[in-house]
Fold each of these.
Amino acid sequence: MPDEHLPVYQIQDFHAQEQKESYFYLRSFAAHLREHQFIQRPHKHNFYILLYISKGHGTHTIDFEAYPVQANTMFFLAPGQVHSWQLSDDTDGYIIFFTSAYFRVEFPHQKLNRFPFFHAPYHMPLLLLHPPGDEAILEVIRPMQREHEAQKPMVEDVIRDYLDILLILLRRRYQEQNPSGQIPAPLLSQVQALEQLIDQHYKAHLPVRFYADKLHVTAKQLNDTCRRAINKTVNELIQERVLLEARRLLVHSHLTVSEVAARLGYFDNAYFFRFFKKHTGQTPEQFRNAQH
């Protein structure tokens, strides 16, 4: 049976160098897997992850979506996502962790959500690289690893600059591979602000007007923005967030269906049952049983 709560790992759990609230970690992926056996089960992180696969195969599951693991693939994870993997013994590459605070020390006015691959609900969390054309990306990771291991004076300044360059190069390649999936910056900014509010308040089942007021627009304007940006309404975004948390709790906790419903703000079990089945095609119990 799953634990009552998903583990949420912090970057210091991986012996990252401490620098107040700013952390960074970079290892070969094979070494990382050997040293941290506790990460095999589904879990969350409170930091950003870049995972480059140089060889090996398997499956990487991110919030109930299974993605194939193969050579020359880069995976992206933002804080709070649930993931796990099943990998062949020869899997290797590089894994990079960093916190938002670490990045902002050097780039206080830049937002990590400007990189589409960290915007999981609307963008694929992976990128297929094609050596030798993408050798430039490895030419940033390798010296960044050397800097991290050598720990020379001003190492953190050098690493942050490398990290920014790496993210920019990855964004270029990502947008080349996904030209039709780009959301205009002004629309994306408002949708992301809305998502942050939904993440804070989705259990309260507040009306669209609440979110519109917080963003200083009308409910109609907010719905119009969502439709133009992602072809969804505000209510659909709220429902998707509730369903994601319901799935997480059903699969990764000991809570009964009634307790899951209550935790999500549904005190009428029958209403939660109908809501879940309408949007997933399964009852909560059927969904839970299918995952085990």
Note: The chain has eleven helices and eleven strands.
Amino acid sequence: MQGNLLTEVFLPLALTIIMLGMGLSLTIKDFKAISIEPKAVLTGLFCQLILLPLVAFGLMYFWDLKPEFAVGVILLSACPGGPTSNLYSYLGRCDVALSVSLTAISSFITIFSIPFLVNYGMEVFMGEGQYIALPVVKTIIQILIITIVPIIIGMSLRNWKPNFARQAQKPFQIASGIFIAIIVLGAILKDRENVIPFFQETGLPTLTLNVLAIILSLLIARLVGLNFRQSSAISIESGIQNGTLGITIASSSTLLNNPTIAIAPAIYSIIMFITGSIICYLYRMKNDV
């Protein structure tokens, strides 16, 4: 009963609050960035929506992981950037407007790409007949309800009540951080007797994916001629994923209903906070010059 309460009530509610908080920080102007800085936005979307899943599939193909863990890595790579990426971009003196735009746009696009990428991942790593396919239409609708609707509500509040939205941003950011920590810890502690084995089995693969995403996206952004503030924002956006959404999809009884798949997104979420803090410090030194 407690497990059902966590996965069916707390997880969706927490994610809704996190995304509502993100919506409070967004305006229509953020979405206009694609026409103002098309190269930067398209490069960021390529790194996050195409490069990251490709790297994840490549790593999992050669890494001998338990099938559910491999699918969890694929699920994590298919998720959009997390709201935390905007905070790291701000602290790292990166291009915050670009970071916010990428988070918002990727959140819309991945509504449709997640079910297809995850189903393909399960087919490759779990084998036919060994899994319950992620229902495409139901997944799209559920992700829409718990991510995009709150973003739209938050943006509407920002437009209609700008003073309220500005005052509410900090409390929502604090609440989001607390919820993310609770969700990640909850996903791990649910099988607390296996925490060390989980880290031993998924820690290095998820760290490798995270580091490769950060480095490769930075290199690609620089190669196409973007400045360092833009490139560092894209790098952070590609490495800081919405692990909360991945855990929710894996744990929900109406979607994958497989808590084991949620382990990799949970481990990745812990690792990305550490690596994110390191690169945030490094980028800040570079961008301050």
Note: Residues 94 and 233 are 5 Å apart (CA to CA).
Amino acid sequence: MCKLCDLFGNGERWYFKPENYARNLYKIRPPGYKVGSGKDPETVAGELMIGALQVKFNNPEKFPEVREKVNKKLLEVNICQVITLEECNYIIDNLAHPLALLSCICRRLLRAREETDRESYSCLATGVGVYKWERWPERYKGGVEFVSPEEAKEWIANWDKKGMVHTVMTFGSPYIGGICNCDYDCLALRMRQFYDFEYVLKGHYVAKIDLEKCVGCGTCASRCQFGAIRKIVTKNKFVIDMTRCFGCGVCATGCKQEAISLIERESTPYLKNLW
């Protein structure tokens, strides 16, 4: 199991635990606490990350040590894990209530893109933490639309068709605040791919191509956001580098030949510790 399952799932998949969708509506402050008396964990993690990037460019040999400190802090405050479309649907049907569509803060910050309606919203808020929106006006600036499970599944299927990677995201571990649909505009994915900050952990699956069924169309490679799929030119076939695969399944849902299957990461000794 991954570290999140060990920490928050009692050895089971942590994002299938109902209690991890039951965040307190408001923080319970310790006796004597005063607002502004200390930095919140999110701010501390952000400052550590900025410091680590400075170390990477100025003193690169020390970067791995500093990065490990950042990753430990991220576990406490804000971390994501890739999940499949099927897992999204299970969460929507069985675990998370209420459900609300809202805008992506990463796209607003990195692309100045505002999402203001159901067609453009790319994040799904889950669980009672949704009711905390009035405390974060910037996070919910584009508005919020509550939806039924059927509406949420139809909405997320549309993003899957567009090739988005689905992730569950904590907002104060272990509490899951939502399901995000991510691409290059996602700050968490960038930080993982470029610097190996564990904002996003790999999923519990890896993809595998059946070469007998593969017709070499390349749809899978065009949908993979992790550079895990390449072409065997002499055979006009595609193969997957499982060490780079994040297990999102977007290649499988886009394959018209049904040539791609997902297997459990832990079923392969070499992959079971690559998260």
Note: The two ends are 9 Å apart (CA to CA).
Amino acid sequence: MANDIYRRCGCRKPDGTQYKTLPARPTADERSESCPRMADPKHGSWAFYISAGKDAKTGKRKQHRKSGFPTEKAARVARNKVAATIDNGTYTAPNKITVEQFLAEWLPRRERTGKGLKPTTVSNYRRYIENDITGSKVGVMKLSELRRDHVQRYVDQLMNDGRGAETIHRIVAVLKTAFKYAVRDGYMGANVAQDIDLPTVERKAITVWEIKDLQAFFAEAAKHRLGDVFQLIARTGLRRGEALGLRWEDVDFVEAKLNIRNSRVEVRGVAVEQESVKTDASKASVELDPAAVDALMRWKISQDAEREMYGELWEGVGHVFTMPDGSPLNPSYVTKLFTKLRKTAGAPALTLHGLRHEHAALMAQAGVDVMIISKRLRHSNIAVTSNFYGHLMPNVSRNAASKVSQLIDAEKSDVHTLHTQGGFLGTKNAPAKINNDSDKGVRPSPLPDLNRRPALYEG
């Protein structure tokens, strides 16, 4: 269309009204109604307008207008770019909402709608939004004007400022998640936080205790009324929140297993209960070894005695591990207690979450297959397990190769025996010999049972 490219100026008529714009291909009447100074091709600036469909809410036709171009060609190139976005469905109408304004509205809504966000996730998102994104060069930009290179320069600046690689990954993850909804709502044409070059996260090697350190800690923890909490975590690999969120209805003594449904976490110093756990895989049941069952039974007897002593003052609502009056445990209190007991026991530095790593390490040392370890720890996929604990499994591959070799050598020995007895393959006696062996029962495979339950602890 010829008239969608035009020239305009700020001049006014003697009566104070503004002159009409001058199209790129004007008629005589259009020239007469425009500013007389438009005869000078350098007077005014070029602009364009284009139809952008109808507003989904109001049903009114939308038009995209932009001015300030020095030449007709520049205005036409810009107009064609907008037309392309309209054709491919990525067009976004100009808007004044900034990134930080959108995030301030998006996070509370995202917390309440759909599947919602866990309190810990909301807390982390809010921390990155308030401390890192708000007030930054990206935060103050309009959503409609933000481009991928702006986000990349923001990430580069974070790296230059010394922010940790993992923190940068999480900040960009917040932007990427939020921009997905901005695109859906028509504020952006594309998610510009995708495909950003991020710093490499160097995962630190997991450190664990030796058996003697674990036994020394258990001996010290046994002196405290909550010692069984740590017994259960070390013997099952539960996360802190999962152990503290356990309720007696989740404990199956008959099948010797736990059903993980809740997680008790701490958000800004306040303990809260999450109805869902970290991942969908985390909802799987966890089998208990006899020692873990004993610890739970021992604790239940102790808790029943406390309940009877407190009587009507008992505040319990079904949690397995509680304070003496039945009230749920505060996660930070349990962490501080662990540190205190560890130091008293003289064990090397280790976090409470390190007991979960300890459980995985002992399974790896016992030769348990990585798939079984991953399933028991309820990781989202086996790659997570390999990344965390791969360095603790140096002998697994070697042991597997050795077992395969034993199998081959065993089969070769059998074949040699058959051959010396005149029953080598191809002779008429061979099938009868093999059938006779099968009648006596299947020969045990030299391969190990990789699904066995390892004896992780003694005593």
Note: The chain has four domains: 2-88, 99-184, 211-391, 405-459.
